[in-house]
């Protein structure tokens, strides 16, 4: 044994070397040392432990001083909490992995901010899951009963008047001459044989017209007239006595034994080029289609008169 030395000193953990020399009468000892922490240990006394991981218990790496640095998309003390898709609803959405947004029961949408309607809801919405708040004009558990059926569907035909009765139902009030749920059935007014005294009946849609036998007049040929004394000529007609009866000289626009028939000038279809005919007393009026004019819509309007074409 040449020499023995025992020394007690303090030293900092680091990469720097500590160098010492020990002299004796017979020897000289030079030595160096440093303190380096073992793997995954950090700090002044190597007392801080940090091991990088990316599993169900955490998602982080370690800094040079041993603190945990969360990987992208993770947070929390142990970096175990995933950061959801930006905008994901904090109450109605959640995530197991970064940048996802998984909806809780009753919610939907990219950000889980839209509630799910009650199953079967047709014309409703919700502010909370499983609701069915009906839109205006709809009712019922599934908002499938049209409360304004008349406006949406216009079921009444032939100028019938529609009345909503609730819960998707309606009633039609039909004009004279029509019947049926939707006023779709037209009465044959001649079925009741309204023309008396041998008169012949003609159905005219809403009502009827009687062609009376000689010597009778009235809507249903109910009046008998053998002379001008009973004033049989109507609608301005003038009466002339004959040997056995009388004769009516009808005013313009009327015909028939007693001038009871108004002449419909539209029967001859005088309006041309798609014009609509409106019957008038002793005449007619045409409502012309676009591009035509004149009493019978026979004149083609020259649309180029006002030079509508521009830029050559």
UniProtKB/TrEMBL annotation:
<feature type="disulfide bond">
    <location>
        <begin position="174"/>
        <end position="183"/>
    </location>
</feature>
<keyword id="KW-0472">Membrane</keyword>
<dbReference type="InterPro" id="IPR000742">
    <property type="entry name" value="EGF"/>
</dbReference>
<dbReference type="GO" id="GO:0007154">
    <property type="term" value="P:cell communication"/>
</dbReference>
<dbReference type="InterPro" id="IPR001774">
    <property type="entry name" value="DSL"/>
</dbReference>
<feature type="domain" description="EGF-like">
    <location>
        <begin position="262"/>
        <end position="298"/>
    </location>
</feature>
<dbReference type="GO" id="GO:0045197">
    <property type="term" value="P:establishment or maintenance of epithelial cell apical/basal polarity"/>
</dbReference>
<keyword id="KW-0217">Developmental protein</keyword>
<protein>
    <recommendedName>
        <fullName>Delta-like protein</fullName>
    </recommendedName>
</protein>
<keyword id="KW-0677">Repeat</keyword>
<dbReference type="InterPro" id="IPR051022">
    <property type="entry name" value="Notch_Cell-Fate_Det"/>
</dbReference>
<keyword id="KW-1015">Disulfide bond</keyword>
<dbReference type="GO" id="GO:0032991">
    <property type="term" value="C:protein-containing complex"/>
</dbReference>
<feature type="disulfide bond">
    <location>
        <begin position="37"/>
        <end position="46"/>
    </location>
</feature>
<dbReference type="GO" id="GO:0030154">
    <property type="term" value="P:cell differentiation"/>
</dbReference>
<keyword id="KW-0245">EGF-like domain</keyword>
<feature type="disulfide bond">
    <location>
        <begin position="103"/>
        <end position="112"/>
    </location>
</feature>
<dbReference type="Pfam" id="PF01414">
    <property type="entry name" value="DSL"/>
</dbReference>
<dbReference type="GO" id="GO:0005886">
    <property type="term" value="C:plasma membrane"/>
</dbReference>
<feature type="disulfide bond">
    <location>
        <begin position="212"/>
        <end position="221"/>
    </location>
</feature>
<feature type="domain" description="EGF-like">
    <location>
        <begin position="146"/>
        <end position="184"/>
    </location>
</feature>
<dbReference type="GO" id="GO:0007157">
    <property type="term" value="P:heterophilic cell-cell adhesion via plasma membrane cell adhesion molecules"/>
</dbReference>
<feature type="disulfide bond">
    <location>
        <begin position="70"/>
        <end position="79"/>
    </location>
</feature>
<dbReference type="GO" id="GO:0005509">
    <property type="term" value="F:calcium ion binding"/>
</dbReference>
<dbReference type="InterPro" id="IPR018097">
    <property type="entry name" value="EGF_Ca-bd_CS"/>
</dbReference>
<feature type="domain" description="DSL">
    <location>
        <begin position="35"/>
        <end position="79"/>
    </location>
</feature>
<dbReference type="InterPro" id="IPR009030">
    <property type="entry name" value="Growth_fac_rcpt_cys_sf"/>
</dbReference>
<keyword id="KW-0732">Signal</keyword>
<feature type="domain" description="EGF-like">
    <location>
        <begin position="80"/>
        <end position="113"/>
    </location>
</feature>
<feature type="disulfide bond">
    <location>
        <begin position="288"/>
        <end position="297"/>
    </location>
</feature>
<dbReference type="InterPro" id="IPR000152">
    <property type="entry name" value="EGF-type_Asp/Asn_hydroxyl_site"/>
</dbReference>
<keyword id="KW-0221">Differentiation</keyword>
<keyword id="KW-0812">Transmembrane</keyword>
<dbReference type="InterPro" id="IPR001881">
    <property type="entry name" value="EGF-like_Ca-bd_dom"/>
</dbReference>
<keyword id="KW-0325">Glycoprotein</keyword>
<feature type="domain" description="EGF-like">
    <location>
        <begin position="224"/>
        <end position="260"/>
    </location>
</feature>
<keyword id="KW-1133">Transmembrane helix</keyword>
<comment type="function">
    <text>Putative Notch ligand involved in the mediation of Notch signaling.</text>
</comment>
<feature type="disulfide bond">
    <location>
        <begin position="250"/>
        <end position="259"/>
    </location>
</feature>
<feature type="domain" description="EGF-like">
    <location>
        <begin position="186"/>
        <end position="222"/>
    </location>
</feature>
<dbReference type="Pfam" id="PF00008">
    <property type="entry name" value="EGF"/>
</dbReference>
<keyword id="KW-0832">Ubl conjugation</keyword>
